Amino acid sequence: MTDTTKRSEGLSTFAAIAFAVGTMIGAGVFVLSGLVIEVAGSSAVLSYLICGIVVTFSGLSYAALASIFPEDGGGYLFARRMLGDYPGFLAGWAMYVSTLIGTAFVLLGFGIYLNLLLGINLDPRLGAIAAVILLTALNLRGLSEAGKLEVGLVVTKVAILILLVIAGLIHIQHTSFMPFIPHVAGGVVEGITMVFFAYIGFQVVSQMGGEIKESSKAVPTAILASIGIVAAIYVGVIIALISVNLPSYGQKSVFDAAVILLGTYGGYLVAFAATISTLSSANASVVGASRITLEMASEKQIPGRFARLVNDQPINSILLGSAITTVLIAYGNLDFIVNLTNAAMLSTMFLVNISAFRLVKRESLVPPEKSYFKVPFGRLFPALGAISCVLLILTLPPATVLMGIAGLFLGSVFYVLEDTPEGRMAIKEIRSLLRRPVGDN
């Protein structure tokens, strides 16, 4: 294990927090919150709170590993370094697949709120597919997001949501929460399973660790701070939605609540925030998915031709990802997409928690001179993180879990596929782009 030279240039800790918060504050709040209330009633507050605590267990594992491996790659890098090549491949492939599936959900949210913003009634899938085409074209041309732009977008949408939360708190009455658990514990548990999707964006900062200044310190801070900030915003939005006592809750309930609490213009303001939020979040996901394939190709875990570079972007990876996302938008429903995303992402997080558990158990793996973030209470939180991942997987529909597992192992074809001379040349170009020794394995 080698230490990495600290960067003097790159994203600040605040910008890293903004990227994580920006990724999480998207369809997970604007679309999912109403769906969770529909399932769990007023106890949706508990679903968001408990899920935030559960995700923090895994967040601590990510923080510890990110402080030791301050490079790009996130869960893929951690699992590969701590568990070996094939577990690392499974973690990376699960990250790639879950990012694509999650992008489909986010862009469906974009289509829903674009309709509300423009006052039209088109099929939301049309707006979502148009967004896929736009983001694909932009990324193929080499688009990259600047930290300052992301900070600006995040501050804008968070400010709008805080305005909604304040209006909800003014409007709330104790009777709004009666009965508090209308569906007994089952609704809370189902809500937790759904809400998990909304929190997984915290890992984006570990995926881009090499782009962050003093990343061994900044990334753990950004991971834990972003989970706390987002949990507070989610709970606030849920309270605002409950305060208006809508006759029914669904995918556009945040808009409906904003109209009641802030007036017609307030509804359009929230629709505007949701539109820029989902589009920005989807673009970050497209960039993140392409970064995962670059890392995997650079380590020769997938064929180089799969990540062939054009304008410094892995063109084949982006095109395949866009095609998968489009199919999911066209033929998948929101519940199925959320469950499939969770099945894939929970697999990665399970492997990351096992990696952190092994790290704590064998601290001798870390050079004595290396300073890193130590998980409190030793192996307790990595163990709780791993167990929570398994329990959440067991709450998902069996067919979805089987489909997720099948997708992971079908991806293993890429792991064993023999590369071509063109692919090996592409790997050299990728390693040069990532500033890795071209002859290093």
CATH architecture: Up-down Bundle
What shape does the CA trace take?
globular
Counting copies of identical and different chains, the oligomeric state is: single chain
The helix tally amounts to 18
Spatial strand arrangement across the major sheet:
1-2
H/E element sequence: HHHHHHHHHHHHEEHHHHHH
Low-confidence stretches: 1-8, 143-147
Structural class: mainly alpha
Percent in helix: over 70%
> How many distinct beta strands?
2
Mean pLDDT: 82
Number of domains as seen in the coordinates: 1
User: Could you give the distance between the termini?
Assistant: 15 Å
Tell me about the largest β-sheet. 2 strands, antiparallel
Reading off the top of the CATH hierarchy, the class is best stated as Mainly Alpha
**Beta fraction:** under 5%
CATH superfamily: Amino acid/polyamine transporter I
CATH topology: Amino acid/polyamine transporter I
